[in-house]
Write a structure and sequence with these properties.
- It contains 8 helices and 6 strands, in the order βαααααβαβαβαββ.
- The chain has about 210 residues and is α/β, with parallel strands linked by helices.
- A 6-stranded parallel sheet has the order 3-2-1-4-5-6.
- Helix 6 links the parallel strand 2 and strand 3.
- Bound molecules: 1,6-di-O-phosphono-beta-D-glucopyranose and magnesium ion.
- The site of magnesium ion has 10 residues, from loops.
Length: about 210
């Protein structure tokens, strides 16, 4: 099947902001007296929205919080996270990611970002990628986060391509589910390999170039 477009998840695929998300949630958890927030909990936050990610933290609190308190907690986490983003620069784009993006572009394959993050525009700017992609769909555009396919379907439509013509690249089980539900082929990296559901398994992003 000919691939005309590739839709990349952002956090955990194009850059390592997934680690910043983990550290910022861990800081909030400790502030709330939750000492046993783990990386396994964090894996369930990958790809899901900020407020849904907060619920994963609060599962371990044993306390009931109001909607106002929850919004404050999510804001607190996001402020810590945005502070961490200040340290990012184009040098945070790995050689492997840069090579993959440039090769796809040279082959005339369209590229897009499909991310649940509302911080997507700021992160792409930090990486020097604001004008690189043919389309961006992110947490600011959607009402249902992964595993719902909304963000990937929007990215494909902004590329003027059908899902069957595109590969989605994901590091999260929720994102693999979203891609498959939308009718895309899905290439999995990192944590997403564990679920065993993806169409393709990648060791590194540039392995994608072998399956086009
Ligand atoms: P924000 P992705 C997702 O990005 C992250 O994986 C997930 O952990 C996060 O909760 C979500 O973005 C929302 O992020 O708080 O920045 O709006 O993996 O879909 O690129
Ligand atoms: Mg991700």
């Amino acid at each position: 099947m000919k691939t005309k477009g590739v839709i990349f998840d952002l956090d955990g695929v194009l850059c390592s902001t997934d680690e910043y998300h983990y550290l910022a949630w861990k800081t909030l958890a400790e502030k709330l007296g939750i000492e046993n927030f783990t990386r396994a909990d964090n894996a369930r936050q990958r790809g899901v929205s900020r407020m849904e990610s907060l619920e994963v933290v609060l599962e371990k609190s044993g306390k009931a919080y109001s909607s106002e308190e929850k919004l404050r907690f999510a804001d607190y986490k996001n402020e810590i996270y945005k502070e961490m983003l200040q340290n990012m620069s184009p040098s945070d784009l790995s050689t492997d990611v840069r090579h993959t993006l440039e090769t796809l572009s040279a082959k005339g394959i369209k590229t897009a970002v499909g991310s649940s993050s509302k911080n997507t525009p700021a992160i792409l700017a930090r990486l020097g990628l604001s004008n690189f992609f043919d389309a961006v769909a992110d947490g600011n555009d959607i009402t249902r986060s992964k595993p719902d396919p909304e963000v990937f379907l929007l990215a494909a439509s902004r590329l003027s391509l059908l899902p069957a013509d595109c590969i989605v690249v994901e590091d999260a089980e929720s994102g693999v589910d979203a891609g498959l539900a939308g009718g895309f082929r899905v290439a999995a990296l990192g944590d997403a390999l564990k679920c065993g559901k993806a169409t393709y398994a990648l060791d590194t992003l540039s392995d994608l170039l072998k399956i086009l």
